[in-house]
Design brief:
Layout lengths: L1 H6 L14 H20 L8 H4 L4 H43 L9
Length: about 110
């Protein structure tokens, strides 16, 4: 019978395996109370960010972010153009090499 209980993963000697200990429950409770007290007692910390709240410096940061993203898109597009330009150059060179060979007429039969 003991081997059957152990094969099922149940050990009668270990009770409440996986249940949180009273100390961890106390820590979770204290963290929750602290967060609620912080948000209630300090309303400035719970307000919106400067972009949503309408801060003066928000526009400059947004402008810089937009220019950065536009430059990233531009560099990617330049890379694609450069890739196709290199394909075109290689195809042109290959075509020139193929045309440089002559077909000899009347060779050995």
């Amino acid at each position: 019978m003991r081997s059957q209980i152990l094969s099922e993963g149940k050990d009668p000697r270990r009770k409440n395996v996986g249940a949180p200990s009273p100390l961890s429950r106390l820590r979770i409770w204290a963290a929750t109370i602290s967060a609620v007290a912080f948000a209630t007692l300090l309303p400035q910390a719970a307000q919106a960010c400067p972009v949503c709240f309408g801060g003066a410096s928000a526009g400059k940061g947004m402008d810089a972010a937009i220019w950065f993203l536009l430059s990233v898109v531009g560099f990617v597009q330049l890379g694609v153009v450069a890739l196709f330009f290199s394909f075109w150059r290689r195809a042109k060179e290959l075509r020139r090499k193929r045309e440089s060979f002559r077909l000899l007429e009347g060779g050995a039969r």
